[in-house]
Amino acid sequence: MVSPLFWYHHGGNNSIFVFLHNFILIEELFKEIINEKKRKQEIEWQKKLE
User: Fold this and answer.
1) I want to staple 15 with a disulfide (CB 3.0 to 4.6 A). Which of 4, 11, 26, 30 is the partner?
2) DSSP letters of 19-45?
3) For 1-50, what is each residue's pLDDT tens digit?
4) The pLDDT of residue 36
5) Per-domain residue ranges of the chain
6) Are 19 and 7 in contact (CB under 8 A)?
7) Burial letters 21-40, b for 16+ CB under 10 A, else e
């Protein structure tokens, strides 16, 4: 994790918020992708069981 002081010196205060916001968006995207994969696996397992 880059320290807040680094962000403060490189582009002022709001860049840390932009960074955190983007980080949260990326994390949400990963969760969505993982959930999709789990769902597909579950569907395939159900087909095998039938």
Assistant:
1) 11
2) HHHHHHHHHHHHHHHHHHHHHHHHHHH
3) 566 666 566 655 567 777 888 888 889 999 999 999 999 999 999 999 98
4) 96
5) 4-49
6) yes
7) eeeeeeeeeeeeeeeeeeee
